[in-house]
Amino acid sequence: MKQLSVEHLLGIKYLNKNDIDLIFETANHFKEVINRPIKKVPSLRDITIANLFFENSTRTKLSFELAEKRLSSDIINFSASQSSVKKGETLIDTVNNILAMKVDIVVMRHPNVGAGVFLSKHVDAKIINAGDGTHEHPTQALLDSYSIKEKLGSLKGKKIVIVGDVLHSRVALSNIFALKLQGAEVKVCGPTTLIPKHIESLGVKVETNIKKALEWCDVANVLRVQHERMDIKYFPSTREYTQLFGINNEILDNLGKKITIMHPGPINRGVEITSDVADSDQSIILNQVENGVAVRMAVIYLLAQQIKR
Amino acid sequence: MSKKVLLNSKEIEIILHRLACQLIENHNDFSNTALIGLQPRGSFLAKRLASILTNDYHVKNIHLGLLDITFYRDDFRRRDEPLEATDTQIDFLIENKNVVLIDDVLFSGRSVRAGLTAIQSYGRPKNIELLVLIDRRFSRHLPIQPNYKGRQVDAIDKEKVIVHWKESHTKDGIYLENK
After folding, report:
1. Which domain holds residue A240?
2. Secondary structure of chain A as H, E, C letters
3. What pTM does this model have?
4. Contacts of A82-87 spanning 24+ positions with Cβ under 8 A
5. Would strands A219-222 and A260-262 be described as parallel, antiparallel, or unpaired?
6. Inter-chain contact A33–B70, Cβ cutoff 8 Å?
7. Residue B14: count of CB within 10 angstroms of its CB
8. Complex ipTM, two decimals?
């Protein structure tokens, strides 16, 4: 039976390979839909979705909102900065008040790790994690894998390096789970201060030399340096970071092969990646954004399918 | 469970040729016509008709498309089994074209209703006709009737019409099965 094995999308670590295959298969159909002259299907006409963003977001929020609209669901949007959270309301109270308005699915981004799991145990709605602290960002990892698969045909045996601020990155963790599940080899590369201890236990290798990492890989997924999560100095200066870990055309030209460059956005142009690399034909950054809508449509559709009338 | 042959492969062949001729009568050279098979089962019939029109009646440049209606169905979340989507392949514009929707069996009319909505995503057709191989006339839930039909069947609810195509089974055949 073609259904997800999970009731919520809280993280990639709860999914199996069949779930990912089903999401990608469904996303293929939605990618065709969003390239039609009329980019909308009526499947979710009687479903209401609340987008709860307790942390800033631009593209994830827009991407989810567009995916929901393309499926014809009703949407309510909420961002913590303009809400009663500021007045001291708890998460469960906030969400239960929203659910009292008959909401079926909650898409939530929250600064605290495990917020989605916590919510799924206390409220009666499907929960989609749109990023919980430094923990997981499952839809980003799914769209990253989908984009690699689209470019290279398959993930099995492919070599992927995740470059940069792995310590603060929920994208990195979800990507590691997703890539390993699909049989890819994964390395992380960055300053040792930004590589979590014991990360090898997840089955990934650590490399601190960017040139060696790029020579090894087929795809480099470059992460943003998350200054806002750094309460202490993890490297001496941004300039030094760029010199040691920044990716520019000169490094790529000397590799002797063409690797694929990805970035989950937002890009710090000139820090982790130069503009000419971000805008080159090796980069699939904008494909990632397009695929994000299709993949999120697939996730929402498959979870909505489980909601019985 | 009993199974009765409604049409054998020879009879199906004759009917397909008759349907092809009826289409030619109304659509001349097909320059402004699109044949759209409803996925999954209508696509076999649409492809077969396109092939007869091209090979036996020398009609050139037939616009053949396959349309998946999964996301337009009205039974989403109302079935025990989840819906499974198939591919849509329409690589031309529908705008202002004469569209012929093609399906193998017309039963409740709900698939055709979904097809009518789905096709609008590709533009505004000039008109839409419906061609079916089997019309189960007493089982309609919606006011939908075919413009071209292969055979009318008066089957009761307990009976099921099964269509086999040589592309997916060993030979063509249409059967009436008692559930």
Report:
1. 138-285
2. CCCCCCCCECCHHHCCHHHHHHHHHHHHHHHHHCCCCCCCCCCCCCCEEEEEECCCCCHHHHHHHHHHHHCCCEEEEEEHHHCHHHHCCCHHHHHHHHHCCCCCEEEEEECCCCHHHHHHHHCCCEEEEEEECCCECHHHHHHHHHHHHHHHCCCCCCEEEEECCCCCCHHHHHHHHHHHHCCCEEEEECCHHHCCCCHHHHCCEEECCHHHHHHHCCEEEECCCCHHHCCCCCCCCHHHHHHHHCECHHHHHCCCCCCEEECCCCCCECCCECHHHHCCCCECHHHHHHHHHHHHHHHHHHHHHCCCC
3. 0.89
4. A85/A54
5. parallel
6. no
7. 11
8. 0.80
Amino acid symbol at A262: M
**Using an 8 Å Cβ cutoff, are B176 and B161 in contact?**
yes
- Regarding whether A275 and A211 lie in a shared domain, the answer is yes
CB contact under 8 A, B76 and A40: no
pLDDT digits (tens, 9 = 90+) for A273-284: 999 999 999 999
Tokens of A26: 């469904």
Which parts of chain B sit beneath pLDDT 50? none
- The pLDDT tens digits of the residues spanning A234-256 come to 888 888 889 999 999 999 999 98
CATH number at residue A264: 3.40.50.1370
Residue with token string 């997800």: A4
Closest chain B CA to residue A38: B121
Question: What integer pLDDT is reported at residue A84 of this predicted model?
Answer: 63
Whether residues A166 and A190 fall in one domain: yes
Q: How many CB pairs under 8 A join A and B?
A: 49
- Under an 8 Å CB criterion, which residues of A touch B? 1-3, 26, 29, 32-33, 36-44, 71, 301, 304-305, 307-309
B162: part of which helix (H) or strand (E)? strand B159-164
Q: Are residues A234 and A110 in the same domain?
A: no
Report the sign of the C-alpha dihedral through residues A101, A26, A108, A83, in that order.
negative
Per the CB < 8 A criterion, the answer to whether A232 and A167 are in contact is no
